[in-house]
């Protein structure tokens, strides 16, 4: 982990997608010393006991290959996927771009994955630790709602929680499922597919929403019994960027997403009134970022793009910094800080 700054130039000399595959291969083969959990950071969300509130977002471990190793790096939970019922290649390459000058990433991967059946054996062998399964619809699906229902039914026995991903910008028409009527139909079917004994279900939404849409999503998610909202996915907007690849099509993540993702978190906190847990993602790089998201209303946080620039020791660093900030401000645990921004 300490060597990452030295080897990063070599990694960055490779195509971004090839570098990612080599990273997955390395995690499979190299020993990873397990991070020691800190009881101070333990938190309970949606009935699950998380060792700490810092998780790995979907997109890194698409095919559920290295979630065990990820947890050993100090993450409190790992979310695999996005998985689809049938395997699919995704969009044409190149489709993953580092924006080093901006500490950002643009991707237009298109839910490339091996499908449910490919991931099942690895998920069945999993040991301890909280693992979520993020799933979506196949690009050519004739019944997208049916794909999500299949995700609930197939993955419920194997996951600690499920994430319904309707927010990727790289599958045409997918974000249309965020519209109130379509969302209600989808979540009604999802709710019907699960029983009381099945794992919590989170809904992952886009940051590119209008205020009225935020209220509609909050209302439907609560009414249909969702257990959490992940705020947010990548953005199709383009703040000022320095990288020459800033004009590539796809979803932007990393540092430039920070302000937008934070604002959406605040918007959803206001719209839900704390009635449903929120999970913050987008531009989180430091313990200060995580602390700010907790205070703005998030019970958990997720990251991915920052790993590209900071390396595998990032989760441990963020947890250490987060603990220092929580203790500095007199919070006895992470849960006490949730939603305290603006309170006297």
Beta-strand portion reads: 15-25%
Oligomer: single chain
Order of helices and strands: HHEEEHEEEHEHEHEHEEHEHEHHH
Can you count the helices?
Answer: 12
Mean pLDDT: 94
Helix content: 25-40%
Terminal CA distance reads 40 Å
Write down how many β-strands occur, each being a DSSP E stretch of 2 or more residues.
Answer: 13
Biggest sheet strand line-up: 3-4-7-8-9-10-12-13
Radius of gyration: 19 Å
| Shape assignment | globular
Structural class: alpha/beta
How would you describe this structure to a colleague?
- By secondary structure, the protein is an alpha/beta fold.
- The protein is 37% helix and 16% strand.
- It has twelve helices and 13 strands.
- It has helices at residues 4-12, 16-29, 67-72, 115-124, 144-155, 180-193, 211-223, 258-272, 287-295, 305-310, 314-328, 334-337, and strands spanning 43-45, 48-50, 54-56, 77-83, 96-99, 104-107, 131-135, 161-165, 201-205, 228-231, 251-254, 278-281, 300-303.
- The chain has an eight-stranded parallel β-barrel with strand order 3-4-7-8-9-10-12-13, surrounded by five helices. It has a three-stranded antiparallel β-sheet with strand order 5-6-11, with no helix packed on it. A two-stranded antiparallel sheet has the order 1-2.
- Helix 9 crosses helix 11 (314-328).
- The N and C termini lie far apart (40 Å).
């Amino acid at each position: 982990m300490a060597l990452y700054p030295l080897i990063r130039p070599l990694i960055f000399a490779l195509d971004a997608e090839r570098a990612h595959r080599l990273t997955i291969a390395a995690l499979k083969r190299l020993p990873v010393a397990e991070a020691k959990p800190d009881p101070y950071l333990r938190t309970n969300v949606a009935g699950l006991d998380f060792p700490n509130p810092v998780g790995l977002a979907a997109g890194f471990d698409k095919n559920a290959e290295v979630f065990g190793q990820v947890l050993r790096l100090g993450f409190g939970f790992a979310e695999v996927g996005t998985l689809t019922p049938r395997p699919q290649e995704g969009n044409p390459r190149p489709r993953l771009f580092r924006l080093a000058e901006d500490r950002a990433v643009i991707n237009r991967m298109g839910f490339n994955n091996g499908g449910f059946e490919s991931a099942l054996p690895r998920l069945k062998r999993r040991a301890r630790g909280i693992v979520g399964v993020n799933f979506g619809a196949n690009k050519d699906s004739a019944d997208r709602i049916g794909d999500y229902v299949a995700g609930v039914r197939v993955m419920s026995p194997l996951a600690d929680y499920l994430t319904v991903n309707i927010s990727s910008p790289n599958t045409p028409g997918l974000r249309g499922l965020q519209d109130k009527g379509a969302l209600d139909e989808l979540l009604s079917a999802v709710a019907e597919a699960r029983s009381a004994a099945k794992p919590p279900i989170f809904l992952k939404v886009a940051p590119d929403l209008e205020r009225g849409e935020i209220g509609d999503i909050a209302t439907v998610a609560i009414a249909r019994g969702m257990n959490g909202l992940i705020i947010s996915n990548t953005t199709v907007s383009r703040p000022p960027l320095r990288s020459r690849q800033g004009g590539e099509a796809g979803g932007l993540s990393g540092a430039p997403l920070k302000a937008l993702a934070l604002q959406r978190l605040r918007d959803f906190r206001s719209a839900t009134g704390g009635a449903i847990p929120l999970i913050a993602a987008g531009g989180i790089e430091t313990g200060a970022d995580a602390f700010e998201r907790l205070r703005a209303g998030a019970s958990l946080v997720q990251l991915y793009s920052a790993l590209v620039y900071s390396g595998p020791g990032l989760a441990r660093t963020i947890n250490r910094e987060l603990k220092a900030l929580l203790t500095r401000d007199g919070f006895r645990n992470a849960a006490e800080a949730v939603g305290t921004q603006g309170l006297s």
